[in-house]
Amino acid sequence: MSKEKLIDDDLHMLQNAKGNICISIIVPAHRRSPERRADILVIEKAVDKAKQLLNYKYPGQEKIKPLLSSMDELFQGIDFMHNEEGIGLYISSDLKLSVKFPFAVDEKVIVADSFEMRDLLYKVNYTNPYFVLVLSEQGARLFQGKWDNLLEIKDNNFPMKYEDDYEHKKPVHSSSLAGYAHLKDFAKDKSQLEAIRFSDFFRKMDKLIGTYLAEDVPLIVMGVEKELSLFSGVSSHNKHIIDTIAGSHNYDNTKQLADLAWPAMRTHLENESKKVVKEFEEKIGEGLGLTDIQDIWRAAQEGRGFKLVVEKNYRIPGFLADNDDHLYLRPPQKPHKILPDAIDDIIETVLNKNGHVFFVDNGALKNYHRIVLITRY
User: Fold this and answer.
1) What is the CATH number of domain 285-375?
2) Mean pLDDT throughout 283-305?
3) CA nearest to 374, candidates 294, 277, 302
4) Who's near 5: CB < 8 A, 6+ residues apart?
């Protein structure tokens, strides 16, 4: 398996690869052309470092030869002309995966018995789908978004063209004394009729949009103020609208629209995480809010983890001894297993047991030991 896009099946394979030789190479990258040239050298050095670690841990062993070849293949396959803000290469005996990150990452080169999952989990949990509706006098275009990528929907419904086939009768003067009063009335009536017809068009379009919007899926609407106002007045999906962007954008290309839409979506996601923190504070009094990492570990293992909130870069090692129910923060005086990052294990456990994970900026949970959990019961 060698891909540029991360899907759920890939994530499960990465999570289940524990026990094998797992190579994780995560390197910052640049979107702009002058800086992209330096990325090739930086990533090449990171790959060389991973090879050295592999040879150091498993000197002369035949089983590492396919892994060395896979690293070279992934490196050669990177499209440096379309970089994002980070690149991840993941290699084991069963898979080789290349992932681009649309957010800043720290360089990490790890050879272990499991993959470095934090940046992958951060990406997956913020890959919430959303829609962008572009309104204009010509009609409407609809786009589906994930991260900062948009894909235009082209089917039997969209793009939807507005056609004004109403025939206006030419105005006549009722008398010489009336002057241009009737002409002005006609212009006013025509403007009102156009507004009515646009509203009817938006109502029809609004019903079609309902076939795409699942519960809680965000919608961003773009258009001039008049169109935004008309649509808001007739739409039954205002609860989905997280932002409106005023202006004429009908002739913008997909990249231009994405550059406008993604900051609005990202702000929405950050606000949702802040809402969960407030929800957590309300749940403390009900006994459903946990802040102690050992309590959080135990609740996650028991399947009680409902909503986990963690600072993006919070990491802490852990240790397991007799079973997985108790997390030690110091090495116990008995045979034990080392967890390089217990936070990653908590995140994966909550997700595997149908919980939700929210990331916040570093320092946002400084009063709560950098991680909190809302439990189901």
Assistant:
1) 3.30.1330.30
2) 95
3) 277
4) 99
Residue ranges of the chain that CATH labels 3.30.960: 8-125
Residue type, 100: K
pLDDT in tens, 10-61: 777 787 777 789 999 999 998 776 666 788 889 999 999 999 999 999 998 8
Query: Which residues does 14 contact at the CB level (< 8 Å), separation at least 6?
Result: 90, 95, 97, 115, 117, 120
**H helix or E strand, kind and range, residue 35:** helix 33-57
Q: Tell me the pLDDT tens digit for each residue of 141-191.
A: 999 998 888 999 999 999 999 876 544 445 555 555 555 555 455 445 566
pTM exceeds 0.85 for this model: no
What are 324's strand-pairing partners? none
- Judge whether 222 and 256 are in contact, CB under 8 Å: no
Rounded to whole angstroms, how far apart are CA atoms 128 and 126? 5
Report whether CATH 1.20.144 matches the domain 8-125: no
Cα–Cα distance measured from residue 311 to residue 371, given in angstroms and rounded to the nearest whole number:
7
